[in-house]
From TrEMBL, chain A:
Keywords: ATP-binding, Nucleotide-binding. Coiled coil: none annotated. This is ABC transporter ATP-binding protein. It comes from Halomonas sulfidivorans. It holds the Pfam family ABC_tran.
From TrEMBL, chain B:
InterPro entries: ABC-2_transporter_component (IPR051449), ABC2_TM (IPR013525), ABC2_TM_bact-type (IPR047817), ABC_2_transport (IPR000412). The keyword Transmembrane applies. It is found in: Cell inner membrane; Cell membrane. It comes from Billgrantia antri. It is a multi-pass membrane protein. Gene3D superfamilies: abc type-2 transporter like domain (3.40.1710.10). Keywords: Cell membrane, Membrane, Transmembrane, Transmembrane helix, Transport. Belongs to the ABC-2 integral membrane protein family. This is Transport permease protein.
From TrEMBL, chain C:
Residues 122-363 form the ABC transmembrane type-2 domain. Signal peptide: none annotated. Its main location: membrane. The lineage of its organism: Bacteria, Pseudomonadati, Pseudomonadota, Gammaproteobacteria, Oceanospirillales. Keywords: Cell membrane, Membrane, Transmembrane, Transmembrane helix, Transport. This is Transport permease protein. It is a multi-pass membrane protein. Pfam families: ABC2_membrane_3.
């Protein structure tokens, strides 16, 4: 096996900021190599260095036997590089985008015909050849981007955050393409924030703050934390958390919908005193580690601190039920939401899953009173969304996937503005801001401008802004996209805290592993609610084994629906 | 409370937006200065070539008269008309004065004779002005010669006086026109930018799920611009002083009518925001869409020089009325008793625009 | 240089542009709008100037004098004025631009061959017009009382290149320089930055395309649009406005080609050094549109500007092209006269392209 990529002491500085330091990588030909790391770890910079579109400040990289500085043109001609942003021209059709990619890479016309037919069929894009790329769904766009980068059959493919914002169904298709491609002998380097995706890689590199912490296969990485993970099942979650919170041996505490999960420091055991206190309260069982735990163990960042105790402002939240009765939304001939009935009780966290375009966002917009349903009726916090929309707005919180904040205002100014927008003034405003910013660990950042904050902090600020007025129901539309695993976990702790205080939380997500944080799950497909229940119930409906992953459950339900629709 | 928060937020954002701040600063100061210096100058120093076939004291006096006022600058003394051609072709001279042989003799004899004045017409305005200067110079010369004339003659001596702008510089006009233009751009660009940016960042959706009412949002998007527009006028008043533009009328009246004008400009800005999705589109629209509006206002060329159809159209441009108001207050020193039709026109143009903006705004959010 | 790759970029760019109705609209309609507005609106031709007469003499001679004014095509009697207050009001309202005041005893003085002064009051707000109005008025009063103009010294003006002193003839050839400077750079400037903003540029960087190939391909569709604009503007200029064409059409087209390359290059350069479409847009407006409108000599003659500003105008190719275009169209001159301006544009073009290629390194940082 020869090396596709070999780097020695590779580093890059932007002005005075060191983004990458001493990266030594050896990527073999014919493997799928994953780059995993939190926000700002340097994944994108590394990708750009490897694509020879950025010069290193120190060290060197050899890609396919060419030096990335001196022989940049040779590297450019041989690699496919897909950046994090979309690399398509919105106004060109699918076929035209592909043609362009081929022609600037000197692909001969007959070679293009053969390969494009093959690739488009594999990506399932053969029926939309004439559609402008701008009108494709996120998943289709990513698939087309991938095809465009495969058109010249590059021996090396560099993919930056391949499946950001892509629904699970499209993600499965993308990986199918990648594996085919690897089996033909090519090499793939892919960076990803998804743990389940990292599992598919042959080998992984963990990046943190510009350093490579480990390079190994997923199985080996998981083995490193084997025996340090325990599931804690209890009926008295708050009491157990209080016991476990400050135990030095505990590296991380995760609050899932139906249990707690703890991770211990390397070589540490829970002290007998703690075990004694837990006896009778909870049952401990050793659990199989996931990559997420391996990631947390390796990461130099401190594990997220548990949120502060719930303050009275939240426990006052009451009456946060959500009820929809045969709710439909039609846009012309298109039915975005098709007779959805659901009932959510106060304090429940309900996860809403489905492929892109399934109608999740439309449903949330109806619940928020932004969109009138064509049919049916919905009640949120006891108010009719059709008749009492104005009153409704004071009782709900909404956070969009874009973390809609004012980038030119500081943290404090955003908080003050949204508090004012909800009619809070004087003492009540001060208290609400103090509570929300304390809860979301924003204290100390008040004077920073939003535009200079990381995605993770923006996410917490967006949450803080949407709960200032103590809403009865909180709607979160893909609240964790673009945020790394550690901060995602931390975010979910906050959600659990809010829910335990009585707030109803309605959340949509593409991260299937987050399903384990939700009390119940709703699966939408083509506007219809095709399944609703706990994860266990959904598994049983398909007669899947108890250890079946969320992905199997999700895809299983979608396939069953498709079969039903077909027959 | 909600409204106060909104207004507060708008003002903070205004001071943090480098692009809009730069634009407003540019429009109210740099552009005014550049234009005043570059375009406000009266037409002087026209390069003049002279073919003096007479070479007498009288012909030299005439040439001196041409040069003395500063309107013309002597570019060359030429021997004959044929030599003049390359000068005009290459733009080295704008005009050629040809003084015939026997000029002096004929002058004292009182016989008829013609001076020739060749003008490069490729810039029609320059040519017309050059001709005007030449006419005035020759008239003045003739009148003075007339008094030397021994025989008494019937003469009409005309006293020419230019009102409102005795130096005949364009500076006053340019400064005021540019300030009026800046008012239009600010009034349009600022609300457009602040609304479109909320669309771009997605915060407009966030606002919709708060109890903020549309009316409150509308007020928050329009009132700050009015204040900013009024405040932004102040530094340009300093420029007015710098350039020595007279302030003959009442400043409070000027500010009040500026507010009225901004009111209709803001409505346009909201309309622009309604149809554009990105800041770039909004700016393009603002710049090119407002182009005709500016053109028809009299800031670039006097309205009465336009064809009748365009003159009638110009009545619909709020800028035209504002320009008349500005010129009236500063240069003519008139008050409401004369300006009321323009003020009324601003209201008449502003009301439907505002109404339209409000209707669109409601649908938009 | 690989022609296939260049063609790939060019076709891609062409498709993108054609599918953007706003851009195509701005590119094709705005030049015509500009041309029509300028053609119709920019004219300082003085005819039909509204004037008022305050005749305090009320004699046959005084009536003759006012008839001498109204008989000319330049002036039109708007109203008879009863007293000085009425005159002042009429000037203030802008009803009249010139007032003729004939004092009592005018006829008597004239009969006695005494100097008989009359007053001419000109509204000086538009100084260029005021100069012309004053000149014309003086000429009328000056020749009044003489049997025939030939009996006295008078000025015979001949206007070369544009005998009718039509502003359209001046404006249209000059406008080529402005329109070709305003729109092509706008398109190219946004074209490159758009790829930077949307991130598609990364794909270009990570491909075998060289910077020169990429720029060349990018340029082509815009060059074609620019030539279409040019053809449209030239065609409308000659067919609609009837501007005479004295020089060689082929020569002008050839030079326009060079000039368009130059303006496209400026757009590319702006694009290569900026990072957001908004900044690129503002930069283009400031480095191309404004200077070409104000400092090219198209409307405002350069020799009247202060010396520093004159030096500043040297930095913009628009000024050279105005000279070239007017030279070819109106004066009918060719290479033998215009070569210095052409050489400067050529060098300018090379420089701009070299800079653009140098700035567009195929690296993200």
């Amino acid at each position: 096996m020869t090396a596709a990529i070999r780097t020695t002491g590779l580093g890059r500085r932007f002005a005075s900021r060191q983004v990458l330091t001493g990266v030594e990588l050896d990527v073999r030909q014919g493997e799928i190599f994953g780059l995993l790391g939190p926000d700002g770890a340097g994944k994108t910079t590394l990708m750009q260095l490897l694509a020879a579109i950025l010069d290193p400040s120190e060290g060197q990289a050899e890609v396919l036997g060419f030096d990335t500085v001196r022989q940049a043109a040779e590297v450019n001609a041989r690699v496919g590089y897909m950046s994090q942003e979309f690399t398509l021209y919105d106004r060109l059709s699918v076929l035209e985008n592909l043609q362009f990619a081929a022609r600037i890479r000197d692909v001969a016309p007959d070679g293009f015909r053969r390969r494009s037919r093959e690739l488009l069929a594999m990506a399932g894009l053969q029926d939309v050849l004439d559609r402008p790329a701008g009108k494709l769904s996120g998943g289709m766009r990513k698939k087309l981007s991938l095809c465009a980068n495969l058109i010249h059959a590059p021996p090396l493919l560099l993919l930056d955050e391949l499946s950001l914002g892509v629904d699970p169904v499209s993600r499965r298709d993308l990986w199918r393409l990648l594996r085919r491609y690897r089996d033909d002998g090519s090499t793939v380097v892919v960076s990803t924030p998804y743990m389940d995706e990292a599992e598919y890689c042959d080998r992984l590199a963990f990046l943190d703050q510009g350093w490579v912490l480990a390079v190994d296969s997923p199985a080996q990485l998981r083995a490193r934390v084997q025996g340090r993970i325990y599931d804690v099942r209890t009926a008295m979650s708050a009491a157990v958390q209080a016991i476990l919170r400050d135990v030095p041996e505990v590296l991380n505490l995760q609050w899932l919908a139906d249990r707690l999960r703890i991770q211990l420091h390397a070589g540490a055991d829970l002290p007998p005193a703690i075990l004694a206190r837990l006896r009778g309260l909870a049952t401990l069982a050793s659990a199989a580690p996931g990559l997420e735990e391996a990631f947390i163990a390796l990461s130099t960042a401190q594990a997220p601190a548990a949120p502060p105790p719930v303050t009275p402002a939240v426990t006052e939240t009451q009456g946060g039920e959500v009820r929809a009765e045969r709710l439909s939304v039609r846009f012309g001939d298109f039915t975005a939401v098709d007779r959805v009935s659901v009932s959510v009780s106060p304090g429940e966290v309900i996860g809403w899953l489905g492929p892109n375009g399934a109608g999740k966002t439309t449903l949330i917009r109806v619940f928020c009173g932004l969109l009138m349903p064509s049919d049916g009726e919905a009640f949120v916090a006891g108010l009719s969304v059709t008749a009492q929309a104005q009153a409704l707005r004071g009782r709900i919180g909404y956070m969009s996937q874009r973390f809609s904040l004012y980038p030119d205002l500081t943290v404090a100014e955003n908080l003050r503005f949204f508090a004012g927008a909800y009619g809070l003034g004087g003492m009540r405003r001060r208290q609400a801001i103090e509570w929300a910013s304390g809860m979301t660990a924003l204290t100390g950042m008040e004077t920073r401008r939003v535009s200079e904050l990381s995605a993770a902090v923006r996410q917490r600020l967006a949450l803080a802004c949407s709960i200032l007025h103590g809403p009865a129901v909180l709607f979160l539309d893909e609240p964790t996209s673009g945020v790394d695993p550690l901060n995602r976990q931390r975010f979910w702790q906050l959600i659990q805290t809010l829910a335990s205080g009585g707030m109803t939380v309605f959340v949509t997500t593409h991260y299937l592993e987050e399903a384990s944080y939700c009390h119940r799950l709703g699966l939408m497909h083509q506007g219809r609610l095709v399944a609703l229940g706990t994860l266990e119930q959904l598994r049983q409906a398909l007669r899947l084994p108890a250890d079946a992953g969320m992905e199997a459950v999700f895809l299983g339900h979608l396939e069953r629906t498709q079969r039903e629709l077909a027959s | 409370m909600r409204l106060r928060s909104l207004l507060h937020k708008e003002l903070i954002q205004f001071f943090r937006d480098p692009v809009v701040l730069f634009l407003i600063f540019w429009l109210y100061t740099i552009e005014v200065v550049i234009c005043a210096y570059a375009l406000g100058m009266e037409m002087r120093d026209l390069p003049l070539a002279v073919v003096d076939a007479d070479g007498s004291p009288a012909s030299r006096r005439l040439v001196d008269d041409f040069i003395a006022g500063g309107n013309f600058r002597l570019a060359a003394h030429l021997r004959d008309v044929a030599a003049a051609k390359p000068y005009l072709e290459r733009g080295k001279a704008q005009a050629v004065l040809i003084i015939p042989v026997d000029f002096e003799r004929e002058l004292y004899r009182g016989g008829g004779q013609a001076l020739q004045f060749l003008v490069d017409g490729s810039n029609a305005n320059t040519a017309a002005v050059a001709r005007g200067y030449a006419l005035q110079t020759v008239e003045a010369f003739r009148m003075r010669q007339g008094t030397l004339d021994e025989r008494p003659r019937a003469t009409v001596t005309a006293q020419l006086r230019t009102w409102y702008n005795p130096d005949q510089t364009n500076v006053n006009f340019t400064v005021l026109a540019m300030i009026a233009l800046a008012g239009l751009m600010t009034g349009v660009v600022h609300p457009a930018a602040s609304i479109v940016r909320e669309k771009e960042v997605g915060t407009i959706e966030q606002l919709m799920v708060t109890p903020i009412r549309r009316g409150e949002l509308f007020i928050a998007k329009t009132v700050p611009t009015l204040l900013i527009g009024l405040v932004a006028v102040l530094p340009s008043l300093a420029l007015v002083g710098w350039f020595g533009v007279p302030v003959r009328g009442s400043l409070p009246l000027f500010l009040a009518l500026t507010a009225l004008f901004l009111f209709s400009a803001i409505a346009l800005g909201v309309l622009v925001a309604a149809v554009s999705r990105t800041l770039q589109q909004a700016l393009l629209l603002a710049f090119f869409g407002l182009f005709p509006l500016m053109f028809l206002s009299g800031t670039v060329v006097p309205v009465e020089n336009m064809p009748p159809l365009l003159q009638r159209l110009s009545l619909a441009s709020p800028l035209r009325h504002y320009l008349e108001i500005t010129l009236g207050i500063f240069l003519k020193g008139v008050g409401m008793e004369i300006l009321w039709p323009h003020a009324l026109a601003l209201v008449a143009i502003g009301m439907p625009l505002y109404l339209g903006a409000w209707l669109i705004f409601r649908r938009l959010s | 240089m690989n022609p296939k790759r260049i063609a790939a970029v060019a076709t891609k760019e062409a498709k993108e542009v054609l599918r953007d109705p706003i851009t195509v609209g701005v590119a094709l309609i705005m030049p015509l709008v500009m041309l029509l507005l300028f053609g119709y609106a920019i004219t300082l031709d003085v005819d039909d100037i509204p004037m008022g007469v305050l005749d305090q003499d009320r004699t046959p001679t005084s009536r003759q004098l006012s008839e001498a004014f109204t008989a000319s095509e330049t002036f039109r009697l708007e109203r008879e004025l009863s007293d000085p207050q009425a005159m002042e009001r009429a000037l203030q309202h802008g009803e009249i631009r010139l007032a003729l005041v004939i004092p009592p005893g005018f006829e008597r003085a004239l009969a006695r061959h005494e100097p008989s002064p009359v007053q001419l009051l000109v509204d000086g707000i538009y100084s260029a017009t005021a100069t012309l109005v004053g000149g014309h008025a003086l000429a009328i009063t000056g020749s009044f009382g003489h049997a025939a103009p030939s009996s006295a010294l008078h000025l015979e003006t001949r206007v070369w290149y544009n005998p009718s002193l039509s502003s359209v003839h001046t404006v249209v050839p000059g406008l080529y320089a402005v329109i070709l400077m305003a729109f092509p750079p706008l398109l190219t400037a946004l074209a490159l930055v758009r790829e930077k903003e949307s991130g598609t540029i990364a794909q270009i960087y990570a491909s075998p395309l060289s910077s020169v190939e990429f720029l060349a391909g990018k340029l082509m569709p815009y060059a074609i649009i620019a030539f279409v604009q040019m053809a449209m503007v030239i065609g409308v200029g000659f067919l609609w406005f009837g501007v005479p064409f004295r020089g060689s059409v082929a020569f002008l087209l050839a030079i326009s080609l060079l000039y368009v390359l130059c303006t496209l290059g400026i757009g590319l350069l702006v694009s290569a050094v900026t990072h957001t479409q908004l900044v690129a847009l503002l930069a283009v407006l400031i480095v191309t549109l404004m200077p070409s409108l104000l400092f090219s000599g198209m409307l405002f003659p350069i020799f009247t500007m202060p010396y520093v500003v004159q030096l500043y105008t040297l930095a913009f190719p628009g000024r050279y092209f105005v000279d070239i275009s007017r030279g070819v169209v109106l004066k009918g001159v060719g290479l033998e006269v215009l070569w210095p301006s052409i050489a400067i544009v050529a060098v300018y073009t090379l420089l701009v392209f070299a800079l653009a290629v140098w700035r567009l390194k195929k690296k993200v940082a």
